[in-house]
């Protein structure tokens, strides 16, 4: 940085996790070792959603690349921290250490942070020391916003569901008997950290062995004016079981834990939509299309009171008073407070309660891929951190 020894942004809430309507407070630290000429020091507060992907069409000389993109801007506010005296365009900043406090209130309608392969919802504070005839000095600090979905007012979240389907395998001109699968859930709404109980059965009347498993699928729709693209990712999966030809399997007594995930719908964002499926999968031996029995479920940020009472008053990890955002009147009194953890298709569960305040020195608030948002995680069950999400 030359004459500038340090130029950094920090949050008073060291977790970097906030709720819509909550103020973001912090300071800019500036350390100057030699006198430096500046135009101003300013802060930019921003929140946006961005979707982009490209596709190749045609062949040979007619081959072309088509780009699809859309963007929403939730806020962009620029405020000065230090400006020259009235009527002046520049000023000299003498050697020393300077601290400039700031505060910005997140709009109440802001959607939750999200990072996907071709789309994201991201929030940032960008600081700039504007230097005439020289490269600016910049720092960017990203933070997570959690617009939590409360499952309790949603009637469908409290209701159970059942799914069933069957298929017949064909081999040349001969058809074997059908493969039938079904499963059910007692409720349709869950939160990260909560267990989904397995209650499934598969009847294999075919002449092939079958592998079966349960998986939790995140289905994301990326929306542009010209086209919509859906990306499905398996975010959690059981081990496989074998059902021999002519046999049946009644699967009871096991469970799978929901990893830290953004809520269904991504409320407040109009170009990214999220849904989840609880799926029984049957993979017959040999060439065949898998049988998939889907049940749509709702992932929220505030659990059903009945679920919270079932698990009891579970206390979150003790990580100090500054490690979490204040409840900010978000969580009901009869619901235990969650911890916070990161999860994405390329990043798995990090230590719950550990902050992830990644900084992009380049100042490019759209292309930095080191940041992963954090989501509430109710420490009710053990989550398999070794599981690797896969898209299909």
Kindly list the characteristics that best describe this protein.
single chain; 392 residues; mainly beta; Immunoglobulin-like; 7-stranded mixed sheet; 6-stranded mixed sheet; elongated; Arrestin C-terminal-like domain-containing protein; Arrestin-like_C; Ig_E-set
Helices and strands in order, then pairings?
Elements: E1 4-11, E2 17-18, E3 23-32, E4 36-38, E5 40-57, E6 64-82, E7 91-93, E8 96-105, E9 114-115, E10 119-130, E11 137-145, E12 161-171, E13 174-185, E14 189-190, E15 195-204, E16 210-223, E17 228-237, E18 241-243, E19 248-257, E20 272-284, E21 291-299, H1 305-311, E22 339-342, E23 374-377, E24 390-391
Parallel strand pairs: 2-11, 14-21
Antiparallel strand pairs: 1-3, 3-8, 4-7, 5-6, 5-10, 9-10, 10-11, 12-13, 13-15, 15-19, 16-17, 16-18, 16-20, 17-24, 20-21, 22-23
Region (Disordered): 342-375
Protein name: Arrestin C-terminal-like domain-containing protein
Family: Belongs to the arrestin family.
């Amino acid at each position: 940085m030359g004459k500038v020894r340090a130029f950094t942004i920090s949050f008073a809430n060291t977790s970097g996790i906030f709720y819509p309507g909550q103020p973001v407070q912090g300071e800019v630290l500036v350390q100057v070792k030699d006198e430096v000429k500046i135009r101003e020091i300013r802060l930019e507060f921003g929140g946006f959603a961005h979707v982009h992907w490209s596709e190749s069409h045609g062949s040979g000389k007619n081959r072309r690349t088509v780009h699809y993109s859309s963007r929403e801007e939730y806020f962009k506010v620029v405020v000065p921290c230090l400006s020259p005296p009235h009527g002046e365009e520049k000023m000299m900043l003498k050697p020393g250490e300077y601290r400039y406090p700031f505060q910005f209130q997140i709009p109440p309608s802001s959607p939750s942070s999200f990072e996907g392969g071709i789309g994201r919802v991201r929030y940032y504070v960008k600081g700039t020391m504007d230097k005439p005839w020289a490269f600016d000095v910049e720092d960017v600090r990203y933070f997570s916003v959690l617009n939590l979905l409360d499952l309790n007012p949603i009637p469908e979240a409290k209701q159970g569901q059942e799914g069933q389907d069957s298929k017949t395998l064909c081999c040349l001109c001969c058809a074997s008997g059908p493969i039938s699968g079904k499963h059910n859930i007692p409720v349709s709404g869950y939160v990260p950290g909560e267990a989904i109980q397995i209650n499934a059965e598969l009847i294999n009347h075919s002449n092939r062995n079958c592998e079966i498993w349960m998986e939790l699928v995140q289905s994301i729709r990326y929306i542009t004016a010209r086209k919509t693209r859906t990306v499905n990712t398996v975010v959690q999966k059981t081990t496989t079981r074998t059902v021999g030809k002519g046999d049946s399997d009644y699967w009871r007594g096991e469970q799978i834990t929901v990893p830290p995930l953004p809520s269904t719908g991504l409320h407040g964002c109009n170009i990214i939509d999220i849904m989840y499926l609880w799926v029984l999968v049957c993979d017959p031996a040999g060439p065949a299309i898998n049988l998939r029995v889907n049940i749509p479920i709702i992932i929220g940020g505030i659990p059903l009171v009945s679920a919270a009472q079932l698990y009891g008053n579970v206390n979150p990890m003790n990580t100090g008073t500054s490690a979490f955002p204040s409840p900010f009147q978000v969580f009901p009194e009869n619901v235990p407070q969650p911890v916070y953890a990161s999860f994405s298709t390329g990043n798995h569960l990090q230590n719950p309660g550990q902050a992830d305040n990644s900084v992009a020195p380049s100042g490019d608030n759209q292309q930095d891929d080191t940041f992963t948002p954090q989501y509430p995680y109710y420490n009710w069950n053990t989550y398999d951190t070794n599981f690797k999400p896969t898209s299909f």
